[in-house]
Amino acid sequence: MENLLPYSIQEIPYVFIALAMAFSVHEFAHAYTAYKFGDATAKNQGRLTLSPLAHLDLLGTLLIFIAGFGWARPVPVNRHHFKNPRLAGILVSLAGPFSNLMLAALGFAVWYSMIRIGILHMIPDWFAAGFQEFFQIFIGLNVVLFIFNLLPFPPLDGYRIIEDLAPSDVRVKLSQFEHYGALIFLVLVLTPLDKYTIQPIFHVAIPFVMQMLNSFFSGLIM
Questions:
Q1: pLDDT tens across 12-35, in order?
Q2: Which sign, positive or negative, has the C-alpha torsion 133, 137, 138, 143?
Q3: pLDDT digits (tens, 9 = 90+) for 108-138
Q4: Cis bond before residue 74 (omega within 30° of 0)
Q5: How would you label 17-33 residue by residue, b for 16+ Cβ within 10 Å and e otherwise?
């Protein structure tokens, strides 16, 4: 059974905790940024919170453990409440992925601080190993979410950014083909085609971001 899952049975608790934090902070960042720019839609629907119960999608969460791909509940945003819809829209879209990058950075900072202080030597080896596994998963998942959500496919944040950057006439055309774009994206993610599209991006971008964060915090703290 373990071999059929993207994560081992031992990793599942760590993955769930890391995902609950990553998804919740990501969606909260969208909601908070939108609220600061004048849109209280998410706040009025109880989404301006860090509680995982407000953001986790049951099917999207289960699929993470079954297929290695899933989602949280998207935060509702009403662009008509923004004084500058394009600028606000871009910043609201960027807030989610950026929050995951910041969580990954925080993970590295806490991990290297624990090593520097010597906490890992004060606890049993099995407990220290658990901490190491959690931080590896926590940092890795947040870097993946940072890169993944910047891909230029609907309904991801990267597509919304391109949509807001595009001229009005191009934006109208993009909206007309949005459903087809979402279907193409699902095909790319859920079929072997991802080996030739999504995976090459991940193989370059994820190690690059991980190395940059690792070098910065190891040099800063150690």
A1: 999 999 999 999 999 999 999 999
A2: positive
A3: 999 999 999 999 889 899 889 999 999 999 9
A4: no
A5: ebbbbbbbbbbbbbbbb
d(CA 217, CA 222): 8
The pair of structure tokens assigned to 168 is 């009005």
Q: Which residues of 134-168 are buried (b: 16+ CB within 10 A; e: fewer)?
A: bbebbbbbbbbbbbbbbbebbebbbbbbbbbeeee
34 near 41, Cβ under 8 Å?
A: yes
Q: Evaluate if pTM is beyond 0.70.
A: yes
Question: What backbone phi and psi angles, to 5 degrees, belong to 74?
Answer: -65, 140
Q: Cα(88)–Cα(180) distance, rounded to whole angstroms?
A: 26
SS3 (DSSP) at 69: coil
- Catalytic (active site) residue 27: yes
Q: Which of 180, 172, 173 is nearest to 155 (CA)?
A: 180
8 Å CB contact between 155 and 74: yes
Contact yes or no for 198/152 (Cβ under 8 A): no
Q: Please give the radius of gyration of the chain, using alpha carbons only, rounded to the nearest integer.
A: 19
Copy the structure tokens of residue 91. Answer: 């910043």
Q: Which of 146, 120, 117, 145 is nearest to 132 (CA)?
A: 120
User: Of the listed 27, 133, 163, 178, which one is catalytic?
Assistant: 27
The whole-angstrom separation of Cα 210 and Cα 143 is: 7
